[in-house]
Amino acid sequence: MTSLDDIDDLRGWLDLADRLGEVRRISGAHWDKEIGAASEVNYKRPSPPALLFDDVVGHRPGQRVLTASMGNARRLGMTLRLGTGLDDRALVETLRSKPGEWAENASRYPVREVETGPVFENVVRDDDVNLLDFPVPKWHEGDGGRYIGTGCAVFTTDPDTGVLNAGAYRMQVQNDGRAASINMEAGKHGAAHVRAWFAREGRAPVTVSLGHDPLLLVVAGTEVPGGISELEYAGVVLGRPVDVVRGELTGLPVPATSELAVEGWLYPDRREQEGPFGEWTGYYSGGTEPVLTLDVRRVYHRDDPIQLGAPPGKPPHDYSYMRSVMKSAMIQDALVRTGLPGVEGVWAHEAGGGRQLLAVAIRQQYAGHARQAGYLAAQLPSAAYMNKFVVVVDPDVDPRSLNDVVWAMCTRTDPADDIETMRQTWGSRVDPLREQGAPPFNTRAVIDACRPWTRLETFPKVAEASRELLDHVTRRWPDVLGGAW
């Protein structure tokens, strides 16, 4: 029977999640939109379970697709090896300072290279490659094709230092299953690696894992500090090195217990029309445009592989909860490490995809403290990409509550004096406000929703009961009020 310490792959993760009552099964869905639509309905449920799709139309039983792997606190806590009984508040508290500790200790957990692993149970080479042999979904009705890479980990290396990067980039199947476009944002570490390989050798080696312990999706989908390998970062979370095998062609690593992986080369002149695709902003990202496309020369997979699906869309979507929790912890940790005093909490709101709306709670200690916190948070490396609003609030405001944050803005922000903008900052090609072909800049606002520093002592008192009084009435009538506080 699998325990938290025994999880070594996606199957072990599924076994434990299933025993905890966290998995639901759907049989007979079609890869063409039905898997995506069923997943979308599930994301909107309170504390959605994981969904495992089997008997996919047009594919043999056993080839499965998993979605909503980390859609609630219990499964995210399990994935991060923090426990299996955490609720939202306990998860956030447990994560405090963890990202910084993981980053500091990652180098102690270099990957462990092994000769073989379950991922090599089947090897498909060269002209026999066909990604459509697997139940690759068309996730959204308006997507331009079938996307095999949503919960993936794309591996690249720095050609000079050998440092490995894992990124979660969307991948559309191309050329009848023989290739896959990889849509990398220009400012990401993987894209920098690819440019360096092009300049050095005229092509870039790439491996991709398409089904794995969801922990690899966490580290691939959040901003691990530059110069740190995501696999080493995963190793420190696990408390043991990640086992990898080397690809036959490029020598790049592949997680040894991966369900499904591909290997090949990117070339600067090899681009295919890609998109549109329903993105994490909640919109389809433009039309179609030429995107670097991987010439897939090897496919490695276990018997009856499980694809890890993580399609974005209008929040809440597959990984919006995971990203909100992880980004909140990473940004708070980074903000504290700048030396800024009085940081009480940070929350990257799910409505903004865990990126576009940040709330920062501070205990004001000097004039200008609130603005300093807002400007720092807006440009931290862990927060800068696609950020649009940073709202700074007092410690009596719960930064995780969108209602409380908006209430503070409505009652403590003077629009003429307390909203400042930063222009030509780091945006994204998926921003629906970006004009086609325009550089991916964005503008962000820092909103001071704190009590005015000059009126801290005289500002009107909030009309709400004290915590002690609320606790008292909750204890007195627990059958009626037990879940309310």
TrEMBL record:
One of its GO terms (biological process) is cinnamic acid catabolic process. One of its GO terms (cellular component) is cytoplasm. It comes from the Bacteria. InterPro entries: UbiD, UbiD-like_C, UbiD-like_N, UbiD_Rift_dom. Residues 15-84 form the 3-octaprenyl-4-hydroxybenzoate carboxy-lyase-like N-terminal domain. One of its GO terms (molecular function) is carboxy-lyase activity. Residues 114-315 form the 3-octaprenyl-4-hydroxybenzoate carboxy-lyase-like Rift-related domain. Gene3D superfamilies: UbiD C-terminal domain-like. Residues 321-449 form the 3-octaprenyl-4-hydroxybenzoate carboxy-lyase-like C-terminal domain. NCBIfam families: UbiD family decarboxylase (TIGR00148). This is Decarboxylase UbiD. The lineage of its organism: Bacteria, Bacillati, Actinomycetota, Actinomycetes, Kitasatosporales.
